Amino acid sequence: MSQTKEPPLMEKIVSLCKRRGFIFQSSEIYGGINGFWDYGPLGAELKRNLRETWWRAMTREREDVVGLDATIIMHPAIWKASGHVDTFSDPMSDCLLTKKRFRSDHVDPQSGVIYRWSGAKEGDEAARKESQLALDAPSPPFSVLLPAGKPPESARKVGIQYYQQRGFKSPELQGETTEKVENSRAFNPENGAQLTEPKPFNLMFHTFVGATANPDDKAYLRPETAQAIFAQFKNVVDSSRQKVPFGICQIGKAFRNEVTPRNFTFRSREFEQMELEFFIKPDEAIEAVCGSVFAWSEGADLSVPQDNWGWEMWHRYWVAQRTAYYAGIGLGADVLDYFWQGPEDLAHYARACVDILFKFPFGTEELEGIAARGDFDLSAHQNASGKPQDVFDEEVKNAFAKWTAEQKAALVARKQAENQAKAKGSLPETKITEWCERLFKGFYVPHVIEPSAGLDRLALAVIAHAFTEVEKTDAKGHKEVLTVMKLHPRIAPVKVGVFPLLKNKPELVAKARSVYDLLKPHLTTFYDEGGSIGKRYARQDEAGTPWCITVDFDTLGEKGLEAKDTVTLRHRDDGSQERIAISELLGRLLPLV
Ligand code: GAP
Question: Which one of 167, 436, 504, 562 has the largest count of C-beta atoms within 10 Å of its C-beta?
Fold first, then answer.
């Protein structure tokens, strides 16, 4: 008997997403476009639900966070000030043989023997005579990495292909040397051919604003939503009556011309971000107001923010908040992990950064980053725009008014020492003194904690987490594998399926329709009368619908008054069924979504 090959989990997930209308390839009828994805009917609902849960948790349920909805195209000066124009790039290398493009730091490290040739000469007499050019043109050096266990001829074959592409009919490789190498990223893992030296490739998509399309009109599609929050910080402060500490959050599209989009929607070129910039006082202001800054230690109570929290407690607080958010939509501690960046990985202005990771089928990868970014962003916009981004804090002014001159001098000296000790990004002494003087008067540029999550990555994470296969045996004894999408009810695209037992009994259909009409205004509900009840359950299981309701003859009262106006409520995850009065349905289901 032939055995069918088990497709890897990601292939099954991608296939289900297309079959059931979660995610489609963008522009599929024209062959697709790499790094762009569309959400089908179920995917659109799922994404909307995720967006909703984030927005609710981050702003509606809080007093200290407000929302923003900014444009995708903003003044290009924003991206210059933020550093994106100069430094938002990935290293890129091309295969010298196939021209395939790689993100240099994503090439799998390889070990083996490098075969190098100084060039090639034409070995075909006729071709040599025919083409003086081929004879005279200096051929470039080339190299191939040969993995252990492969014959040298296979490296030479790749070398010959390379020179054939450069016009040689029958190239003879010249000046061969070899060298052992370990963990090199300089060769194409697919064919061993040499890659070009890494070159920075700016990830921002650009366009032109206005009809003339001259270089002065160049603008960028935002590569992150965060910068609009910084650019509108002052307007929000002036219009919302929020005081530091407080946050501004935003959900919206972001665009990055990723060198190698991959892993389905994980690394896309167009995606959605959900970002919060939470503005806090500098620790020195807390020290003045509260006497000292509460130091974080393992087990510290992070449940309710306190006045004496400095940046580290706020950072830890947001890691805890975001972890609780994920648990609330079904992604518990068993599927999450954390990567704390070491001092060598941190940007010079960042104090700490942790990635919340999810165990995707293709590896444990970043779902969200939570960074403590100091006052870098607002200060950068203050310097570039010339518009002050600091706030005045009466409490801080009053606290410093009680400090002695010696205390103030000690703080200035401490700040100078901290600044001098910095390996990167230290400031001139006068800037530090100026900063302290402003602080003593109650003025400071707020520092920021930034939890930044990807909506599409989250959608992929919940889809991967929900994907479950169940083996069932049908009435004829045939085994089949069914997919059940165990999505948390809060995010499931459809909450309830409503079915009449039989579609050719008008009384059953009418009753089922009335149950549908009852639920529809409150819960996303799907009416289905096609096929056996088992098939209808299976369809809803694949869609991730947590509950199905069947209207049968008991509902109509045919088995007595006791069962009249009751329905079967079937639970997706264990297939269990119970009888419940129609009048109790909403009260039972609404609190669960
Ligand atoms: N403002 C900070 C910022 O943008 P980031 O780590 O570059 O930080 C934050 O992005 C989140 O956005 C990531 O954790 C990820 O969830 C999502 N993200 C980033 N690039 C993405 C891409 N190419 N495709 C899908 N999601 C992406």
Answer: 436
The model's pLDDT over 496-519, given as tens digits with 9 standing for 90+, comes to 999 999 999 999 999 999 999 999
Nearest CA to ligand 1 atom 6: 369
Task: List CB contacts of 591: < 8 A, sequence separation 6 or more.
Answer: none
> Given its phi and psi angles, is residue 291 left (phi above 0), alpha (psi -120 to 50 degrees) or beta?
left
> β-pairing, 218-220 with 246-255?
unpaired
Tokens 């697709």 sit on residue: 32
Nearest CA residue ID for atom 25, ligand 1: 267
Answer yes or no: is pLDDT of 1 > 50: no
SS3 58: helix
What six digits make up the tokens of 338? Answer: 């954390």
Determine if ligand 1 sits within 6 Å of the CB of residue 353: no
Strand intervals (E) in 11-80: 23-25, 37-39, 65-68
124 Cβ closer than 6 Å to some ligand 1 atom: no
Beta-ladder partners of 439:
none
Beta carbons of 86 and 76 less than 8 angstroms apart: no
CA 116–ligand 1 middle distance (angstroms): 39
**Candidate from 373, 452, 462 with most ligand 1 atoms within 8 A of CB, to mutate:** 452
Does the predicted TM-score (pTM) go above 0.85? yes
CB 356 within 8 A of CB 323: yes
CA of 418 to the centre of ligand 1 (A): 31
- Residue nearest (by alpha carbon) to ligand 1 atom 4: 224
Which string of DSSP letters, residue by residue, matches 436-475? HHHHHTTEEPPEEEEEEEEHHHHHHHHHHHHEEEEEEE-T
Looking at the DSSP bridge assignments, the partners of residue 366 are 357
- Residues in Cβ contact with 592 at an 8 Å cutoff, skipping those fewer than 6 apart: 489, 490, 546
